[in-house]
Write a structure and sequence with these properties.
alpha/beta, single chain, 34% helix, 513 residues, binds xanthosine-5'-monophosphate, nine-stranded mixed sheet, globular
Amino acid sequence: MEKLPNDSVLVVDFGAQYAKLIARRVRECKVYSEIVPHNVTPQEVRRRKPKALIFSGGPSSVYQENAPVPHPELMDLGIPILGICYGHQLLARMLGGRVEATGVREYGGTDLRVVGESLLFHDLPAEQKVWMSHGDSVTEAPPGFRVTAVTAGSPVAAMENPDRRIYGVQFHPEVVHTPHGMDILKNFLYLAADCLPTWTMVSIIEKAVEEVREQVGDNRIICGLSGGVDSATAAVLVHKAVGDRLTCVFVDHGLMRKGEPEQVEDTFRRHFRMNLIHVKAQDRFLRRLKGVVDPEMKRKVIGEEFIRVFEEVARELKDVRYLVQGTLYPDIIESGTGDAAKIKSHHNVGGLPEDMDFILVEPLRDLFKDEVRAVGEELGLPEEIVWRQPFPGPGLAIRIIGEVDAEKLRILREADEIVVEEIKRAGLYRKLWQSFAILPDIKTVGVMGDERTYAYPVIVRAVTSEDAMTADWARLPYEVLERISNRIINEVDGVNRVAYDISSKPPATIEWE
Ligand code: XMP
């Protein structure tokens, strides 16, 4: 975090979701970006030597009491600035223009007209659609600024002062509903701020590899693998940096889906030829789960057992002091503390044992999830790992309602495999946040041939979501549901009924436990 190797842009945060999206878009323009709080000091900005600042949008009105404002000296550093929406209004107000609640709100796709010469709209059509979402409007640009675009409701929809290198747009160039948004951002980055598009996959990987080498020197490192994309990518990156000095530990708690342990073996031991300790702890976990029905108790039991197994392995590898964690940039932003390890370990079974004396190696801590996937792909990880849907640490145990046993695990594993296969076959896998099966703790009556059956139902759950905080049940095509249902009932012994969960989060959760 200390070094900014490429040209970099600091996104000043006036609303976390806005800032995050802008930071991602800037990186898609191949310019490294980081998010800083709205009250970042001019000294801190100078220390980081960014090529540009972007003031994000945000939910506030510049008129609200306690509305967040940046340090006024940021405008005098000679660093190019782009203000977006709320950021645009801040610039207008702080530099002597006028912002008013005109009563005209603009929301959604809006026609924009470029007026006069403009760097931001260089080589772009004079009329274009942009995405607006604002109540207040800039009605007068500050002295020294020229108005470069207007809309029906915004007399200053865009403004610029090339001498001071300060630019503002009322609309949101970062959203996909502004078709030329990326071009406008690129014009700002490349033309106004002289940034070079050097933040590429190759440079991301080189930087991470170099930092890991620098951090760990000749020491040995341990990495827990879960089968997910984050730990897999982190492991492969660290392996690239230190080779055989890395040992990966995969604790198979027996609560994985079909094929996952084999996939870990194939990928890491056979393909990448990495040191892999595969701990087969299925029986141990099942024993500990005997009689446990409470969902939180399951999590606790699995989490504790996981740590115990991990500690045992670590103790055997006596001289290992470094532990790889797949912490991502959003974990760091959201913690607000810069101490991502703590959050992760609480949320994730399979996180690090807290009282263990490891130094953390976090090669993904600067990256967004889509960048991690791209790095994973670039490093040759298989598609099944790179694009795997999220899977909870406690695994199938929290998708089996009631007590977990080997027979229920078999049923759920087979049913789940069918769900995933059919979702993939329908081309829906990447469009869904998660799609999986659940085994409830009830049996129902059915009829098969001439025989009455009394067997388990399986629940199918498929949701769309951006971040798992909210989720909507997926409107799966009937044909897909039909195939899933037919196949589960025909192919999975012990199941005679399939139901589809049509609840959203909230009030339901994604998992059933
Ligand atoms: P819920 O069920 O709360 O899940 O809507 C939100 C997201 O978190 C995942 N999840 C977990 N992940 N350990 C994890 O590592 C857990 O105990 C856990 N519980 C839920 C869930 O799969 C979904 O993506």
